[in-house]
Design brief:
- The complex is a heterodimer of chains A (292) and B (318).
- With 292 residues, chain A is mostly helical.
- Chain A folds into 2 domains: 44 residues; 235 residues, MetI-like (MetI-like fold), CATH 1.10.3720.10.
- Chain A is built from 11 helices and 1 strand.
- In chain A, helix 3 packs across helix 10 and helix 7 packs antiparallel against helix 8.
- The longest helix of chain A is centred in the first third of the chain and has 44 residues.
- Chain B has 2 domains: 141 residues, 3-Layer(aba) Sandwich (D-Maltodextrin-Binding Protein, domain 2), CATH 3.40.190.10; 121 residues, D-Maltodextrin-Binding Protein, domain 2 (3-Layer(aba) Sandwich), CATH 3.40.190.
- Chain B is 42% helix and 19% strand.
- Chain B contains 13 helices and 15 strands.
- A 5-stranded mixed sheet of chain B has the order 10-9-11-7-12. In chain B, strands 2-5-15-6 form a 4-stranded mixed sheet. In chain B, strands 8-13-14 form a 3-stranded mixed sheet.
- In chain B, helix 7 links the parallel strand 9 and strand 10.
- The N and C termini of chain B lie far apart (71 Å).
- Classes of the chains: A mainly alpha (292), B alpha/beta (318).
- The interface between A and B is large, with 46 and 48 residues.
- Strand 1 of chain A pairs antiparallel with strand 4 of chain B, so a sheet runs across the interface.
């Protein structure tokens, strides 16, 4: 009698192979489903949006006449908001992450802060809008300005940047730090020259993805008093403004088909902006990965 | 380290680029025509928005030094800012409420109500619906109220199909809901199985997709979707009347024609020449703009605008 019963082995093997095939099929199905949805979405937007897409569409202000309507004010408003949000959220977010990872003692208090930051990332964006309205618009007297909008957006994406930066800093190996200390470097020198550069790709990827989220937000800015029809571009940080998502939302909620098509054209522009931002993130990550 | 520097440089450059893009073109529109300059703060109802957008666009075309942007915080959001003195004009698809009046008084804000145009809240069914010819206000109540609600069409009127009614309604935040709530439901709760949406285009899709559905929204949404929807004539006591520009303007389409307003801060009107000129322009043109195809409301009778013009001049001391 042989020690191995070939028949049982064969049966089990077939069972395992089938399970294997099913798993593979399931994953392919999941991927193709999301790809299909994306494909349909892009197809619909292109079909509806290409009609009004032109150079004038980018450089004209909004209008009640669809042929004359454009997104210039909204596009520049979005860029202005980004110009405030990007540096503010980067400096505050990375600063917080460095403090929490490198300096803060691991005690109950920092744990408490940590939990709160993670929770903040899940707070609905409209709550940040209300916060911005009370603090920046009214208390600080900034009015419904680019500055107030940019600062509110910074608060909104700050938790995401802090968490992403912390993760990035944590992946820097301890040995490198210790080597730096061993060479006589101070803590600040180590952070500046060793830890920060090594963590930068992760930090930047997180920051740019967070900024992409800010580009698409409508609710907090509407609460702040961002406008919907603007026929001028922001001149400075205290100008009133509108942003792309508000303009798009406004167009989609109108009854006439023409405005829905305009919204689709605007979505194409917004997608291009997001695509550029994400490519920058990928580019930076690749550049740095080669180095290490 | 060299690589680091190039990345810093890259980041700096992209930031500068963003700023440059943002600053470019800012001088546009300054030179040329119009003695008037200043800023006008307008916010409020999203229903009134298309009218004010059109007015602002036309006004700024002839007065390029005036900035008159329009916000869409909703009627309530607009009044909240208006009664704090943060706005010159508050657009509203309903009259100001008592508590908002009190808030304005507390801040010492005097204001005047101006009517810009009319909207007829249209009760709509799918184009395929062949049994409905009109509804009385009582029947509407039966369809929409939670209490003693009609589950099937034959509960509404005898002889209609024994089919479940699919009920659609605008969301509770909208002025349209508020108005319907007041004149039809009389503040009693709406049936719980009604499907609510803040986006009227979703309601259009819902109602046109089912032979046994019913819904309501502003006249503009009916007008833009006439090929898919049928407006139901409403009997408010004097026989069935269907919504059209004539019946809405005259108020014959009762009780569902509603006025659209803008509220003006009297102080701004006196002190800011631009606000006065803007309001004058509004009263001269709102009717025509509001009733254009791309907006789809109904203008008021001419005398109504003239009357309000006199009121405006008096207030501004002209």
């Amino acid at each position: 009698m042989s020690l191995i019963n070939k028949e049982i082995v064969h049966k089990r093997l077939i069972k395992r192979m089938t399970a294997n095939r099913f798993a593979k099929f399931g994953f392919i199905l999941a991927t193709s489903f999301s790809l299909m949805v994306l494909g349909v979405l892009i197809y619909r937007i292109l079909v509806e949006g290409l009609h009004y897409l032109s150079f004038e569409f980018i450089t004209n202000f909004a209008s009640r006449i669809p042929e004359r309507a454009g997104i210039w004010a909204a596009l520049l408003g979005t860029l202005w908001i980004m110009a405030v949000t990007a540096p503010v959220s980067f400096i505050l977010g990375v600063g917080t992450a460095i403090y929490l990872e490198e300096y803060a003692k691991k005690n109950a208090f920092t744990k408490f802060i940590q939990i709160n930051i993670a929770n903040l990332a899940g707070v609905p964006s409209i709550v940040f809008g209300l916060l911005g309205l009370t603090i920046f618009v009214r208390l600080a007297g900034l009015g419904s300005s680019v500055l107030a909008g940019g600062l509110t957006m910074s608060l909104l994406i700050l938790p995401v940047i802090v968490v992403a930066s912390q993760e990035a800093i944590r992946t820097v190996p301890r040995e490198i730090r210790e080597a730096s200390f061993g060479m006589g470097a101070t803590k600040w020198q180590t952070i500046r020259r060793i830890v920060f550069p090594a963590a930068l790709p992760g930090i930047l990827t997180g920051t740019i993805l967070a900024l992409s989220r800010a580009v698409g937000e409508t609710a907090p800015l509407l609460v702040l008093g961002a406008l919907a029809y603007v026929a001028f571009v922001p001149e400075n940080l205290f100008s009133q403004f509108t942003v792309l998502p508000i303009q798009l939302y406004n167009w989609t909620s109108r009854p006439q088909e023409e405005f829905h098509m305009l919204a689709a054209s605007g979505i194409i522009i917004l997608m291009v902006i997001l695509l550029i931002m994400n490519s920058i993130a990928v580019f930076i990550r690749n550049k740095f990965h080669k180095r290490s | 380290m060299k690589k680091m520097k190039s990345v810093y440089l890259f980041l700096m450059l992209s930031l500068i680029l963003i700023f440059a893009a943002a600053c470019g073109k800012s001088g546009e529109g300054v030179p040329g025509g119009g003695h008037l300059s200043g800023k006008i703060k307008i916010d409020g109802s999203s229903t009134v928005f298309p009218i004010m957008e059109a007015v602002s666009e036309e006004f700024q075309a002839s007065n390029p030094n005036v900035q008159a942007p329009v916000g869409v915080s909703g009627s309530g959001g607009g009044f909240e800012k208006f009664t704090r003195g943060e706005l010159d004009l508050a657009n509203a698809s309903r009259p100001i409420k008592e508590e908002e009046k009190t808030a304005a008084k507390a801040k010492g804000i005097d204001y005047t109500e101006f009517e810009l145009a009319k909207d007829g809240i249209s009760i709509v069914v799918s184009k395929e619906n062949d049994f409905i010819d009109h509804l009385t206000v009582e029947e509407l109540k039966k369809i929409y109220l939670e209490k003693d609600t009609a589950k099937r069409w034959d509960d509404v009127r005898e002889g209609w199909p024994k089919k479940k009614i699919d009920v659609f309604s605008p969301g509770t935040d909208s002025g349209t809901f508020d108005y319907f709530d007041e004149v039809i439901l009389e503040k009693k709760p709406m049936r719980r199985d009604a499907q609510l949406s803040e986006d009227d285009n979703v309601l259009v899709q819902g109602v046109s997709g089912s032979k046994h559905a019913i819904g309501f929204f502003g006249y503009a949404y009916y007008q833009a979707n006439k090929d898919k929807l049928k407006a139901v004539p409403i009997d408010g006591g004097n026989g069935p009347v269907e919504p059209n520009p004539k019946t809405i303007e005259s108020g014959e389409y009762a009780p569902l024609s509603r006025p659209l307003f803008t509220y003006v801060n009297n102080k701004s009107l006196k002190e800011n020449e631009a606000v006065y000129e803007y309001m004058k322009f509004t009263l001269e043109n709102a009717g025509e703009l509001a009733s254009s195809d791309m907006i789809g409301y109904v203008s008021l009778p001419k005398e109504k605008y003239e009357e309000q013009m006199k009121k405006l001049d008096e207030l501004a001391g002209k």
